[in-house]
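Quick one: structure for this chain?
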Amino acid sequence: MALVKLQTQHFRNLLSAPVEFSPSFNLLYGANGSGKTSVLEAIGYLGLGRSFRVSRHQAVVAHGQSKLTVFGALDSGLLAQASSEKVEHRIGISRDVSLKETQLRVDGEAVRSLSFLAMHLPVSVIDPGVFDIVAGGPGKRRQFLDWLVFHVEPSFSALWQQVQRVTSQRNQMLRNGRLDESLMRVWDSQYGALAESLSDIRETVFHRFKIAFESVLAELDAPWVEGLKMDFYPGWDRSTALTEVLVNHREQERRMGHTLYGPNRADIRLKFGGRPVAETFSRGQQKTLVILMKIAQGKVLSDLGKQVTFLLDDINAELDVRHRVMLARNLQELRCQVFITSIEHPEPDTLWHDGDTPEYRMFHVEHGQLTEE
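Got it. Here's what it folds into:
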């Protein structure tokens, strides 16, 4: 699916007029504060159910308003066997921040879960904060993997919610001081069974991702390629049953007051020469690595017939020309939908200097209004 029409109401400084986009590349430029990043943020709302910039929904609603709405029309995208400009789905999200209410709609019907929107529009963000996937903690890499797992395996979302509920119950008991060991073992048993199922799914998807990543990596001419190692850590040593691990570390968890082993501690471990890449790679090398990981994500979904919508926010500030060309070329080959923002007027000939320029639309953004050029 590709987002071919966007309309917002009371979303930051964006005007409410509908805008039509290309299912291929969309280039947006304008001064700081013009609203170009807000456009990406609104698209992200449809695919993620939240802002990729801030955690508070109140910060996104236009000044003086209490409710925002984002609507999108999707067509079959570039990966469809037969090209068609027919709208396949209409999705929308509305948030009333004063009442703390959310309404979700797909094709005119109310739905309960954000997953119904997300499955129609896989959105992947590449902005300055994304490079923390390598330099940041395990949570960043776990979130990165789980986004892919969600779009590959439909059962993952419900299973992960069950794991979260049981983890919360365990944590509450661990913080209570005196433990009821018999009751704790009941929660351990539930947690262990769910953790095994969840980790099986994660490992299967990670294997797909690693194959895609290695194929992308093979095309890169860099001295560090041969020494790079990527492995999945499920959150405990799976040679031992998780229930046994929990019993053996009961006192440690009681002192800490929360669950220390299991899928909530999973990680993608990236090492070079036996040491974490966060310690051995330069900032530039880390950026290259993250770009390749994002491309590999898109490749996995592309191979499954799913088109990803990539949101590239102000990449000129983070990536040099060589990296921008590499990213644009790979995304073009994946037949993804791409939105790129920049302060300067885009120069398509710079991104696609070999003459194989894809179909694209260009927009100037000013005071929340998009004008197509």
